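Hi U.,

Before I forget, here's the chain from the pilot set. I'm dumping it here mostly so it's searchable later in email.
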Amino acid sequence: AIQPTLFGIAPAAWGWADGGTVDLASASLEIRLRDLTGFDGRCDALFLTTDTAAAPPPDGGTALAQWRAQMRGETATPETTATFDLVVVGGGFGGCGAALAAARSGLRVALVQDRPVLGGNASQEIRVASRGDRRYRIVDEIDTFDLQNRSATTIDRDAARLALFRAEPTLTLYLSCRAYAAATNAARRITCVDIRHMADGSRTRLTAPLFVDATGDGWIGAWAGAAWRMGREARATHQESLAPETADLQTLGSSLMWTSKTNAAPVPFPTDLPWAAAVAGSAAETGGEWDWEYGINATLDTLDDAEHIRDHLLRAIYGTFANAKLNPAHANRSLDWVPYIAGKRESRRVLGAYILTQNDVLEGRYFEDAVATTDWGIDLHMETGISYRSTYKNYGRASPCYIPYRCLFSRDIANLFLAGRHFSVTHVALGSPRVMNTIAQLGVTVGFAAAICSQQGYEPADIYRDPDVFAALRARLDADALATPSWPANPYTTASAIVDNLDAARVRIVGEWTASTSDSGKWLSNYLHDGNTGKGGKYVLFCPATPLSGDYTVSTWHSAGGTRATNAPVWVFTQRARAAALAVNAYARSDTPDVWCGNEETLVGRAGSGKYFRGFLGFDLADLPAHALVDDVTLSLTIRYPDASSVNETAGASGITVHHLDEPFSPGAVTWNSREADTPWATPGGTFATNVLTAIADPPYFLDVTNGQRLVFPSTPDLRARVQALLSQSAPDKILRGVVCTPSLETGYTSRKLYRFAEARLDVTWVDPSVPPTARLNLKEQQAQWRPIGVFPAGADGLRVAIGTGGTDAYVTADAVRVDIARSDIDPDDYDGNGLPNAWERRWFLQETGTDPLADPDGDGSPNREECERGTDPLDPRSRYTAGTRLLLQ
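Structure:
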């Protein structure tokens, strides 16, 4: 007999453990494993060999996979092949919605699910009640909206859901099958997905012209080479106020909910569980809800550390229940349901033609390609003082709030749809549409879109690019709607915009204002008041969008009160002033000669393994008036020429950042803009952990830049506020000082990656409140209604509305501003009248309504209007115009 060997002690991670030797009397034997703890012990494989000197098999990765295949006698090609019109991988609500919609449209569909049941987090294995707007009949057929979390009724619902799918004649289910590879061709199209049955190991290759990644983790997209993100974007990346200042890898965590029950007689339970007590501590619990969550910490990866996250929660469950059993009141209690599949909230997010952001959700942005609605507020989870418990904060959402079709297909892989929580969305925005019924809406959309593509010969992207084809998709969605469908009205036939004081992207606050909720009649959740102090030095500048040229009615909203001013000044500006400042000594560098520094340039990055560079900037704003109200600030750096010795890779996760610097410096004498690898940064630079003014999260590769190319940094509230502070305060000078860094290169890289910058430029726009006010508001009366100020023309500069405090002797409040226009002369080929045809905007996946012709999304120095005229790609800085041709050069 085999000598007793205690497995599971070493190694601490997955790996092979030597079980000794044994003499076998027969070529056939039975091996049994006994779990000595009784709590979720596991073993992946047993290996028997007659070669006592053989080295252990590989511990993991590709080597272990190859060794397994060799032991099983497998070839690279699966044993069987099956061909379909559409392959859907993932049997959660997104995959279920896509598969049903496509199959009922006549497509031959394969639905691959790595569990024996459908429904994902809503199934009996995880038991999360589905939430969110159902909108479509297919969603209503598969959802569990009427249940509560942890309900055992999910067992019956799983059976009913499975019967529903098995009744579809053109739908083939591959249950308990896990996809493990996807292949692509030279055209970056997926040709097949390989799957393995989790019980018998058999393999099948599934081929199709179209694929849906509904895995929730973006596995198909990742294997195919699609661009994806994981973790939190930096605040400046999409101007999201709820995002962290610096990007990181933190995601929402995973949960194990659980229940126990009371029996007629005492039920024993072991209480000496040191491996569980290490997590549970002294806490005693008899059940757990959604907030039994782990994995929020940025050091944990919900993909690579999924088993560790699940095991930590299991230890918490068993440990806290063991503590509860010490109480005689729980003598008759036993565990009822403890899952071993964790409910995951977030991992990868695959990038599509559009990325849904926080501002889209909170503002209810209009999308001409809206296909689904989210009615769940932005729900973000945070850690607590207990490792296995979480808390949350709900930041709300607009009503209605729509999701565009452009988020539902990969921007890189031509035949890949997305239907899961890994669709094209930021971390913050995902807090809203991640609930299951909303994800099911996305699946239904993708299924109908796939049918149009298959039956009419289109690609996923074509459906957005052609308004008539998109109208056909809308018609199919409308036919499946539970109620009379409602879609957002085109705001460019009747344009209206409301800006609330909470809108950081469109409000500039000068001076000390206090947010208050004291009085009723406020617009949204609060209003600002000046505290009846600092008169003449406080302003709130509202910057509404005025997408069309024409006359707008401008109105204000306020809550009235007996202590309010009767003469609060308000200005309506139809023009803005502009100024451009070049950096003072823009070519400043260390005065220490070395081989890396050329004349008249600033170096930023890493020069090999031993030298790091930062650039420094100083913009003199003395020519701007002290009373100016800053509307917008844009910083740009011009490439002098590519550094030929650099490795052509990314700048790393943090991109290029610009940090504020208080201390003056003398460009000809400083030495703190460079350092050797074994020395710290000298002051006043230091580590720059804070004070980020603006950043380019994903700058171009080091050798993809061209001579004279401008890298444009986004305008941010921090950058605007710093410029405003310099103008408003009695500072010794009016110089905006900053340091340009590549934080990732300063910590995690050894190869040479260097940007060579020449001109640095700061563009500022402002309005001038030194002119007489347009009107004065009586804040004592007319509470809680829109009060028109007048009608004003909005041209290229739009409209800006400022509320001030000068000349008042009582409290001034600022709450919200509204602008309205009604037009009958809309050009159907250019709804927003911006000079960019609707068809061109759709061709490049830009918003058909509201695209700024002067914006430069790819940062190559050519705004959208020039890109349109030249026939180049507005989203690709490598797309260049050559005289005499209108070809797109890649």
